[in-house]
Fold:
Amino acid sequence: MEHPPSQRLRLGLAAAALLAAVSAGCGGSSAAPADSLKVGGYSVVREVLHEAIIPAFSRKWKEKTGRVPEFAESYSASGAQARSIASGFDADIAALSHSGDMEILVKAGKVAGDWRNGPYQGIMTHSLVVIGHREGNPRSIHDWADLGKPGVGVLYPDPKTSGGARWNVNAIYGAGWLEARAKDAGSPDLGPVKDLMTRIQANVVNMDTSGRQSMANFAKFRTGDAVVTYENELLLRAKEGDAIPYVIPPATLLIESPVAIVGPSVKKHGNEEIARAFLEFLTSAEGQRIFAEYGFRPVNPEAEDAAAGLLQPAKVFTIADLGGWKKLADELYSTNGLWTTIAAQAVQNRGK
Structure:
């Protein structure tokens, strides 16, 4: 179960050996405040940051400066993390699921409006929206429409709390919308799109607060027949010896997850040097190869070889192809938005 950032804030040094050396007074002095960094991330990047990225960066920082950095880490659902930072949690680095959540921090004055001006438009990782299924694919799930077949139990998290859920719903909506637009660019018929989303939502058996919780319910408690999720989540499970088979729909959405410096926190902590160095490391070829080891698709072309064996869908589209996050937020998730009304109707139908 996910816990609020305040309950899961933990101090992590890059390597146990370095921590032991500092604690015992056997090598170097304790880190100065300027060598400390707080990371506020969405739940899906917990393993890669804590187990690999932070240790690798810490070794480089130690080599460069002779000092051991200290990291405090907090992970939760992306929307919850964004709201926490906006409300005062003083993370120095915000690593979120999608740009819509990052814009929450821009509006709150926590992240500079030009955060996209960095390398790769401020994007830290790529992935794809895919469908995990049971061994042998007994429900014959291959495309989005298969999730709407009678009797299929579907899992994805709640778009009100989870960035992953918005990627999932946007992927389903986008595939249908782009098909409709291809038939009539001027005035596409959204009837089939609404029908597809309605049939799938009627089959959603549980909406958790985060994608990580949905994966736990699908894998550990064997809830549902299919889970809509990040490809990297399933590749991480395979890396850990607990593989879940999956399919990439013929048309799916490219997940672009952003990272940025939280300006007021960095100013308060006086750690701009290490914050900018860490941000640079995340999208460096070395950092991106580490992300690829945990199932992400690199944003840096120099690291593309690390993901060379991954399957490629017939069509990949982006949020920009669908009109941007603001447009989708209004059309899908506002009070009268398409997904909001469909979800409300599904709840009413279950109560009958």
About this structure: The mean pLDDT is 90.
